[in-house]
From TrEMBL:
Protein name listed in UniProt: von Willebrand factor A domain-containing protein 5A
Pfam families from the UniProt entry: VWA_3
Top-level taxon in the UniProt lineage: Eukaryota
Lineage summary: Eukaryota, Metazoa, Porifera, Demospongiae, Heteroscleromorpha
Domain VWFA: 2-119
Length: 156
């Protein structure tokens, strides 16, 4: 299941809810992504994140959030906190595109979301980095891990 949400001063979903990853929906998504323009105003990410986390998750499927940005936001900490609040239900993989991408935002969201960050410089191919992140996203997330040791007295 997947969806594409464009964001700027506002946000807009391609589909009203997540849809099955099938030939029909993929064709629609590819066409949409080829026609996408950065025409939604500034870089306002908090509301799109809230929108994503308000959407009902699909039972049996992990939510993977991929954020692509070429800018910065005025509320980086609030965006990171929103990701932290939802980390039990989602992982976040980020892409900073070009020299204007905020490293604090891109790295912060990825760390908060137990994902990974990638940066794409001018003239650099994005495809290998996207493939690397997709492979990471397909790896099962480890949750509720506890470690015990009889030989260690303290971990101060």
């Amino acid at each position: 299941y997947f969806n594409i949400i464009g964001f700027g001063s506002s946000c807009k979903s391609l589909f009203p809810e997540t849809v099955p990853y099938d030939e029909q929906h993929l064709e629609t998504a590819v066409q949409h992504s080829q026609e996408m323009k950065a025409d939604l105003g500034g870089t306002e990410l908090l509301n799109p994140l809230k929108h994503i986390f308000e959407m009902k998750p699909r039972a049996g499927y992990a939510r993977q959030v991929f954020v692509l940005t070429d800018g910065s936001v005025s509320n980086t900490d609030a965006c990171i906190q929103e990701m932290k609040r939802n980390v039990e239900n989602a992982r976040c993989f980020t892409f900073g595109i070009g020299s204007g991408a905020s490293s604090a935002l891109v790295n912060g969201l990825a760390v908060a979301g137990n994902g990974a960050a990638e940066f794409v410089k001018e003239g650099e191919r994005m495809q290998p980095k996207v493939i690397r992140s997709l492979k990471r996203a397909l790896q099962p997330a480890v949750t509720d891990v506890s470690c015990f040791s009889r030989s260690l007295k303290s971990l101060k």
